[in-house]
Amino acid sequence: MLNIPSYIEDPSYRYQMPALQITGESRGNGVKTKLINLSDVSRALNVPVEYPLRFFAAELGASSEYKQSENKAILKGTFRREDLQKLLDQFIEKFILCFKCHLPEISYRFKRNILIADCKACGNVRPMDMSHKISNFILKHHPRTEEKPPSTADKKTSGKKKSSKKKKDIESDEKITLEHPDVLEALERISHHLEESPEKICEHINNICIANSFEPDFRVYITLKSIFGQNLVRLLQDPAKIFILKTQAESYPEELIMSLSVIYIPDESFHSRISRIMMSLYENDVLNEEFLTSWSDDQAVFNESSIIYNQNFLDTMKNCAKEFLAWLESAESEEEDEEEEVENNKEETKENNKLLAQKQIIQQQLEKQAEASKPIAEKTNEIAKENEIKPTVDLISRMQIHEEFSIDDI
Ligand SMILES: [Zn+2]
Q1: 95 alpha carbon to ligand 1 midpoint, in Å?
Q2: What burial class does residue 380 get, using C-beta atoms within 10 Å of its C-beta: 0-12 exposed, 13-18 middle, 19+ buried?
Q3: Which end of the chain is less crowded, N or C, counting CB atoms within 10 A of the terminal residue's CB?
Q4: pLDDT per residue over 1-54, tens digit each?
Q5: Which family would the database say this protein is a member of (predicted)?
Q6: Which domain holds residue 245?
C-alpha cells in the first residue's frame, strides 16, 4: 500500500491506496497499457475510475478507454508504471487533496457551472481549477449530491442519499435571502481575514462569491457589510478599505447604491451622513459622475428582482443624498460654463475659485447638518479622536465584535 499521495513517508499514515499495477497489451491495432487495479485505487481515492483515467489521458496526450462491464481501464500507448504513479500523485494534488490542509477529505459540490471543493477536515471551501480538461468532465458526470460518489465505505448511508439529493435540488431553486446561512457564513468567513492585505481580502471575497455563486449584488453587499459594517464613515478614510470597495464595486454602481440603502437606511442615524458618504465615494472614484448624474436624473436602472432592491430605501437614500447631488449638479454646470470660456484665463480661474467655494459651502452645510444631531455628533467626534491614535487592529476588532449597528461606534 502507498500513502495518498505516495510521496508521504509516514508508514502509519491514515490515508492509503494500493500501488498502481499495469500490464502492456499488444493486439492488432497497436499497443495498449492496461491499468489492472485502477478501480481499487479509485475506490481508495473515493472517485470514479474515469477521473484518474481521463486525467492520465489528458496529461499524456493519449486516448483512453473504459469498459465498466469488464472493469477495464486502458490507455493507448506504452507507459511506465513509475510515470503513471507520479501522474496519479498530480491528480491527487489537483482533485483529491484539500488546498489548505492537504488531506484527502474534500467532497465536490456544485454551484451552477462551478465545481466547489468542501473539506470535511478543516472546513475550507474553494472553487476548483476549471482550466483542466477533466474539470468539465467531473462537472458533467459527478453525482449531484453533496456526498462523494458511492464507494464501499458509503454503502451503509446509501439509503439516506435520495433524501439529501432531493433537499439539495430544492435548495438550488430557493431564492437566497440576506439571512440565508450562505450569506451569513460568507460574512463570518471574511471577518476572519480583516487583518490581511487588501489584495488578499479581495481574493477571499472573490473565492467566497465564486463558491456560493453570488451575483454582483451579493458581492457588493457582502463587501460593504463585512469590511465597513457600522463604521462606514470612518473607514471611508482608509485607503486600504477604499481599495477593496473599489475593486469589488467599481463596475456595479447600482448594486453599491442598493447595498448602501439596504444596509444603512434602516438605521436613521445614518441619514444625516449619506451626503458625506456619497462625497467620499465620489472623491475616491468608487462612484463616478456619470452614474451619479443618471441616478440624480432618475435614469439609473436598478434590478428589481435583486434581494437587495428596496424602492422605499432607495427613495429615502436619494432624499438623504440630495445635498450632495445638488452640489454635483452645480459643480457640473460650472464646469460646462468653464469650458465655454476656456480662452479667458482670468474667467477660468474665477470659475475654479467659485467651484472651490461651492465645495466648501457644501462641506459646511454637511457639518451643520451633523451639528443638528449634536449628541450623536459629539460622540462621533470623541470616538473618532480616540480612534485616531489607536492601531488599526483595534478598529478591526471593534468591527468584529459589533454585529448590530450602533451609533456609538461611528
Ligand atoms: Zn482541509
Answers
A1: 13
A2: buried
A3: N
A4: 999 999 999 989 999 999 999 998 877 678 999 999 999 999 999 999 999 999
A5: Belongs to the eIF-2-beta/eIF-5 family.
A6: 181-409
